[in-house]
Design goal:
single chain, about 475 residues, 2 domains, two-stranded parallel sheet, 19 helices, about 55% helix, flat
Length: about 475
Amino acid sequence: MRKKISNEQIKIESEAGFKPLTIESGMTLLPFSELGDREFELLSYLLVQEEINQSKHVNINSIALMQGVSERGRDCVLYNQGKVAGLIQCKKYTGRLTKPQVLKEIIKFLLFTTLDDSLLPDPGNFEYKLYVSNDLAEPAITLIKEYSAKISEAIGDGTVDQYVTQITNEYESFANYKENTPSDAIKSLLRKIKVSYSNATELSARIYSNEKLLSLFFNVKTIVDLESADNLIRNALNDYGLKYLTDDDLKKLQERIGSTKDEDRINLGFVDFFGYNKEFFKFLKGDRFKEVIQSVTDVNSILDRYLLDFINSKIHELVLLNITKKLLNKRQIHPFSVGVAAPYLLKRLSMTILAKSMPKTMLLQYYPQFSMTKEKLVSEIAETLYESSERVMMKDYSKLVGSPEDIEFKIRIFEHIHIGLNSIDDVKQVFTKDMKVIQPVLDKIENEINDLLQEERTVVIKDSSFLDDNDQIQVLANTIKAIDS
């Protein structure tokens, strides 16, 4: 039996929560991520309920809000003429939901429907609606926008089977499925249902048109009317000598360059100079100009090189912690399979460093991993590992370099990582099985390191005038302290 809550309880809950501050200017997204999980569910429910009253939803004429716990992958249930027609699953994350996260959420719900078919009585007339407080990552968007084709790919390449196994092992509710997972049933349901999503941009637009709902969940501060907001704000601030900036670092930068005359601004694409006259750069032309530009290029090159070293260090640290210690040492995977982790993560994460280093056409030419799916990249690395294994299994040590002692040591290492594997077919079978366990961990590591990186990076070089600014000196001291700690 579904656990629908009363309108009285909904009213109490929706009025009791913390209201994040938002500016009603028509220019900003609503701060959904500052709401609590339950507030975001209540907001979504009340929004759709109001839209149903305004006949804005096709084939949906009522909605029920679930209790919020143990609701089997449903925050709201949608009905058409008294029959279940869909659901809304609310996901409140500050980051973007990934394709694996989205697909696993859908599969988890479908697994519950195999235990209780009243949750999904008519798959062909059912829509799974995902409401997210931020947005989806690009592969997840593609999954939903091209759902029929992409779900067929996920079924064909074994991803769905892998996720069904992972989820049944993770949740006690599916304990009876651990020996015999209902993969075929899940695949059939995945092909029948519809899937859609609403992100922060869409939800903000819908909520801004509902003043009552907007003020119920957010502490709204109105600046000016929407039509003239931009011009009026800029003109008012400029009248008082203020800059239209909110970021503290941008304010300081604006203070430095705001009064720089046009003839003292040199824009060279990947580097800009402020406070240097064009006449000075005419004087530099030739070798001296080349030397200046080369110095700037060298700074970027050094930082990129050390950034790759940093990525390598984090990869080894997190692989040791999450794969070697938690999987290999607990005998959940074979030693051979660990070899995929470092090259896979380095190729995936190097994309963030290289993304803005050259035009996309050149990136694809020189770094083919940019066009590879995760599955394709794993397959390419696996083939290299297989080739090395097969060669040494045949007692071909010609590619092993070093002193006789070094080669002997490498052979012993090889024997260790191939323990129990007597043929290349054994190697492939073990690796394929282990990747079902390793891939989610690789995704977790990749996300953790990516949180430390940015595709777009900027370096600002200043003269020593900041030494006369006590606030800037304090910022410097705090930064050095944070780095040294």
